[in-house]
Specification:
Elements (H helix, E strand, L loop, with lengths): L1 E5 L5 H11 L3 E4 L8 H12 L6 E4 L14 H29 L2 E5 L12 H21 L5 E7 L12 E3 L9 H13 L6 E4 L6 E3 L1
Parallel strand pairs: 1-2, 1-3, 3-4, 4-5, 5-7
Antiparallel strand pairs: 6-8
Length: about 210
């Protein structure tokens, strides 16, 4: 049985990815450390690797904020950078030796915002575009080691990501994605005979609803 680590596993896209992996012969190992606590994260991962080889890392945990940049507090700026960008980079570093051993796969869940420049999204876009470019560059570094690296850029997906925002995806089923859609994309990527380095997944329509 292959083993995977998935961040953001408790809800939304991360939970759906865990469910589909478990249905397809993966054992998902969960991390208890807060992603912002890099020292605790390092200790936990190193202890986990004493008894496990990892075949798959899915960096799915993410936070968003969409407001004028001068209105964002410095602690919030640091929190988004830590969770959206720093933690995936650190986890990739900690797991690369085992992933080289298993000829494994890193899948980073970025965002449609990593590919464009939207109003009030400067901070979020910076973290997600950083993750996207980290992934694409890391693939080039790891090609000879047979470790695959993939970036997924989801558009509006109906999850609790929008709970604290003043907008959310419309109820029109053609205007949002479901977490299961992204999870199915992960499975397709894992089963692909080759490497999908990047994929952007979008609904047909663009509609949002103000709260």
């Amino acid at each position: 049985m292959k083993k995977a680590i998935v961040t953001g596993f408790s809800s939304g896209i991360g939970k759906a990815i865990c469910e589909i992996l478990e249905e397809n012969n993966y054992k998902v190992l969960t991390l208890k450390s807060r992603l912002e606590d890099t020292k605790a994260l390092e200790i936990e991962v190193k202890n986990l690797l004493k008894e496990n080889d990892i075949d798959l890392l899915v960096n799915c945990a993410g936070l968003g904020i969409f407001k004028p940049h001068e209105e964002i507090s410095i602690p919030k700026i640091q929190e988004l950078i830590n969770i959206n960008l720093t933690a995936p980079i650190i986890l990739s570093s900690l797991l690369l030796r085992t992933l080289k051993k298993t000829k494994g796969h890193i899948i980073n869940i970025a965002s449609i915002e990593a590919t464009r420049h939207s109003k009030f999204s400067a901070l979020y876009t910076a973290t997600k575009s950083g993750l996207r470019n980290f992934s694409l560059t890391l693939f080039e570094e790891l090609r000879k080691s047979d470790v695959k690296v993939t970036t997924i850029n989801p558009d509006l997906t109906k999850t609790n990501f929008f709970d604290e925002f003043n907008f959310e995806p419309s109820e029109n089923k053609n205007a949002h994605l479901l977490p299961q859609t992204i999870a199915n994309t992960v499975l397709d990527i894992l089963n692909f005979d080759g490497v999908i380095t990047e994929i952007t997944v979008r609904p047909q329509r663009l509609e949002i609803k103000k709260k």
